[in-house]
Design brief:
alpha+beta, elongated, 10 helices
Length: 209
Amino acid sequence: MEREEIKHILEAILFVHHEPLIIERLREILEETDGRIIRELIYELKSEYEQQERGFMIREVAGGFQMVSQPRFAPWIKRLYKTSHTERLTLPTLETLAIIAYKQPITRLEIEEIRGVNVDNILRNLLEANLIRVVGRKEVLGKPMLYGTTKKFLEYFGLNSLEELPRLEEFIGKVENLSHSQLPSQRDAVNGGEVLPERIPDDTQNNTG
């Protein structure tokens, strides 16, 4: 296939898929097209969107590539998807998630030593939301479970890897506006103002590309 045709295919795939796509997966879809070429074409698309000041962009997150809306348009998109469920992420949940993100791998007791309270229910909710996972067991008496963050966590907070974690204060500021209604599914995420294209209704998708 010609490079331009491959680029158009990549654009379509990234537009409809709601999770980051890694180069290897794109190679499979594009019949083993060289990964270097795929990466080059994605960067070309990114550059074109930036030059044209489009309402969407391609970002690198969780080791892959994903198409999202521009953060500055978040107020209008939030109006479109506004729901009656406005319960916010609680401060205890936020604190626990931050501790896990910055101290992982970490046991429940170690989290409770830092927070000074029981976190059983909070851990259960974060596990159900797929923002944390059990990553092993600590080699001490009782072999307690160790917790760490997930790929979904990276996707939610727009991070390509844990090395990109901001300072703790910035992290808290970034997540405190997330609501519980946004937690269970990544496709519902409003990540720093970025909204995934899958959320755009079918009757408007053709107007955004």
